[in-house]
């Protein structure tokens, strides 16, 4: 039996040696999501919606995140809930969490083909006219469809040793379809008495 303990001790020592070899610092493990480009961040958002993964969605957005409702939705709303001009990160994630919990199915498609890349050295970036389609079914036959364009603001986050592009602003301009992303989220938010 002493041999496995000896092997574990050797491996632990080897790990400690390699960790100290560069002056005591080692790079952090790679993040679970690839947010190294704005387009990749939007792809991660799409995946988070489709997999109903609120934790991954939260990683994609900055702490200073603001969701901007379409101007045609502001002041309206389902039931007693009145849609505001904006939501911060907390309200947005709460509404999305309600939608993830209650929806029968969610299918989001974000076309990242025209997102582009930030200029070299840039710490902020805006992607305009990003085509999004969101289909949220509340049961097998009833649901909401939002299809249209949104703009996204991004900021480079270098914490943790990686250059990640997190979403700082999401402008919802989808007002020409049956629903907008904001009105869908407001429906779930209002349904829970918020």
User: Can you count the beta strands?
Assistant: 6
Structural class: alpha+beta
**How many structural units, i.e. domains?**
1
Compute the separation of the termini in Å.
60 Å
- The CATH class is Alpha Beta
Order of helices and strands: HHHEEHEEEEH
Unreliable spans are: 1-29
Percentage of residues in helical conformation: 25-40%
Which overall shape is indicated by the principal axes computed on the Cα atoms? globular
Q: How would you describe this protein?
A:
- This protein has helices spanning 2-20, 38-51, 54-60, 89-102, 181-191; strands at 61-68, 86-88, 105-110, 124-137, 143-157, 164-172.
- It is of the alpha+beta class.
- It has a 6-stranded mixed beta sheet.
- Mean pLDDT is 85; it is low at 1-29.
How would you summarize what this structure contains?
This protein has helices spanning about 1-20, 40-50, 55-60, 90-100, 180-190, and strands at about 60-70, 85-90, 105-110, 125-135, 145-155, 165-170. With about 190 residues, the chain is α+β, with helices and mostly antiparallel strands.
Question: Topology of this protein?
Answer:
Layout: H1 2-20, H2 38-51, H3 54-60, E1 61-68, E2 86-88, H4 89-102, E3 105-110, E4 124-137, E5 143-157, E6 164-172, H5 181-191
Q: What are the salient characteristics of this protein?
A:
194 residues, alpha+beta, Nuclear Transport Factor 2, Chain: A, 5 helices, 28% strand, disordered N terminus
């Amino acid at each position: 039996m002493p041999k496995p303990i000896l092997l574990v001790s050797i491996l632990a020592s080897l790990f400690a040696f390699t960790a100290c070899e560069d002056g005591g610092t080692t790079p952090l493990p790679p993040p679970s999501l690839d947010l190294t480009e704005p387009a990749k961040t939007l792809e991660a958002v799409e995946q988070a919606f489709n997999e109903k993964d609120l934790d991954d969605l939260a990683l994609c957005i900055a702490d200073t995140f603001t969701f901007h409702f379409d101007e045609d939705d502001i002041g309206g709303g389902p039931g007693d809930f009145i849609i505001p001009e904006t939501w911060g990160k907390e309200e947005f994630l709460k509404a999305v969490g309600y939608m993830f919990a209650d929806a029968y199915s969610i299918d989001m498609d974000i076309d990242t083909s025209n997102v582009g890349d930030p200029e070299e050295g840039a710490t902020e970036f805006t992607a305009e006219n990003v085509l999004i389609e969101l289909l949220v079914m509340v049961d097998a036959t009833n649901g909401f469809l939002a299809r249209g364009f949104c703009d996204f603001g991004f900021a480079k986050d270098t914490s943790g040793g990686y250059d990640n592009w997190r979403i700082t602003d999401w402008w919802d301009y989808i007002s020409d379809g049956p629903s907008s992303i904001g009105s869908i989220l407001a429906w779930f938010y209002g349904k829970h008495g918020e």
